[in-house]
Amino acid sequence: MPASDADMAGADAVHIDIRRGNPTAEELAAVIAVVTEAYEREAADAVVEDAPLRSAWEVSARGIREPLRRDVAWGRFAG
């Protein structure tokens, strides 16, 4: 069932509660324009950076030594 224009407008409609005062339609339009512009600018700047690429050193580097072998006793504590 296709959505009507009224249903589409209701999904994107902005709801503003006026707590004090009696703003004019022009004042409300100005507030909506400023807040919308600030939101769109922030949303455009809020991008996730790509994961840092591994350098050639990280790719080619190997461990300095092999890991310790815990199964082999050492020194005079070998029992």
What is the alpha-carbon Rg in Å?
32 Å
* Multimerization status: single chain
Helical content stands at 40-55%
SS-based class: mainly alpha
Largest sheet: none
- The fraction of residues assigned to DSSP E strands is under 5%
Number of helices: 3
pLDDT < 50 runs, ≥5 residues? none
Query: How many β strands by DSSP?
Result: 0
Task: Furnish the topology, listing elements before pairings.
Elements: H1 5-12, H2 25-45, H3 56-60
Quick overview:
The chain is mainly alpha-helical and 79 residues long. The protein is built from 3 helices and no strands.
Describe the structure.
By secondary structure, the protein is mainly alpha-helical. Helices cover 43% and strands 0% of the residues. It has helices at 5-12, 25-45, 56-60. The chain is rod-shaped, with a radius of gyration of 32 Å. It starts with a helix and ends in a 19-residue tail after the last helix. The model has no long low-confidence stretch (mean pLDDT 78).
Name the descriptors.
79 residues
